[in-house]
Input
Amino acid sequence: MSKRSSVMDKKSFLQAFWSIFVVAITDIILFIPTFINFYIYWWMSIIAVILLDGLLIFLVLYGQIRHYKIREKGKEATTFSRKMFNIVSGLLATIFIFLFDPLFSIFCLLGLDFAFGMHEVVYAGLKLKMWYTDAFNALGRQSEEFKPYYASFMALISSTIILGIETPLVYIFRAYYTGIQFKWAMFYIYTTTILIWGFGDTTAFLIGSKYGKHKLPWNKEKSYEGLFGNIIVSIIVSLTFLGIGFIIQWQILNIFYYVLISIICGVLGGFYESLKLPVDDNFSTPILAGITLTILMNFFLLII
Output
């Protein structure tokens, strides 16, 4: 056996080892809720394992088909793809809440945090591809091979923290969400948070990169054009999704407060994104937006 063949065999072995190891530990994390209440969570754990393992298989196949076709895309296309990837990652918990419940969804996100974080350690740290690396590259790292997917990892971590903050807060005030189950209150509040951040941030990027000529005095990397675009889209998103959940379906929120909450969240969501903080804005912005929305919802339901 040649030296080159030996090196390739070792590389293939390590690739398989890390890929299987990460999937196995992720699956174990998904079964942790069964120790909290086996009778409630055993079937959720099984379905979640099937769904997430199926997602990883899809990523393997997708990566083989797409990565080499789009790897020559420029940095702007890479950034846009990454932002779409961030939104989709954040909305995964929406699917989990819809299928399961908020508490179990937190463990699903923790499993994804581990899988994605370990992928970054192996790929960016050890310079070793895993089975689904090409899919991640195709989804947002076309021009930046072996560079850590830091922004997207922060976005995924922030989704977990948002759910971990919103779940107990809404649970404490659940009696005020008249006629709506805790699960569905969480579904609409969490999803609105992610959509305000995701679409607002993407709009700010698209408008700011094309029309952003007037820079913000507190952050020269951002523009007034991007900020205003972010605010407008965030308000529209909040009006639309909160309206579907809390006005059209359950009618638990006075129309005045509903509009006021949407405007405040839209303005503050845009402002949060424009701040120059020592942490990544994919981490800070959604968390701040989530805390703001949850506090406002609970406060106005408490006083009306």
In short: Strands lie at 215-216, 219-223. The two ends are 77 Å apart (CA to CA). The first helix runs from residue 3 to 30. The chain has two domains: 1-164, 173-304.
